[in-house]
Input
Amino acid sequence: MAALAAAPATVAPESTQQAIGYPSLFLLVLIGALVPVVPTGALVSSAAVVAVHRAAPFSMALVFVTASLAAFLGDVALYWLGRRGMRSKNGSRWLEAIRARAPEDRLAQAQEKLADHGVAVLVLSRLMPAGRLPVMLACLLAKWPLRRFVRGNLPACLAWTATYQLIGVLGGSLFAEPWEGVLAAVLLTLLISAAPSAWRRLKPR
Output
């Protein structure tokens, strides 16, 4: 009887964490795809660290599916809003947000690579820090239909999620405490994100 009475107390926190954690991860990654100021890679890596230490069945798979779906839907929604802005006489704030985060030199490179390699560039752009929006803007300027963008963006989001989840798995495996793994994963993802910008500032003109 004592064991039965204690069982709900041990199961409830785990189920509560899952009920809150996965929807929160979905919403934050979705928002980060639409408003590119949220460090979504760090979110995925942190969730993977927690999943490693939780050792619950299917937890890693749930993190992968949740983050991939949120990133995919966010990208598709942003591209759709960008297409509406391209057709609109006055544009849109979403299109302006994409333009503001796509410097001219990065946009020119993205357009050149897109013309040479097509859909494959979308996959690489998701894996490169600050590479997603210049390529997305290049797709908009090339007037890609939404269906073509979706075909390329799906494997891009899967590869992106797998990469940052692997960073979280490594962080969770190296440290005994979850918070240590989360801290290491966040620092690593932020370092990766900041590296291209730092390189552009430091390299000689």
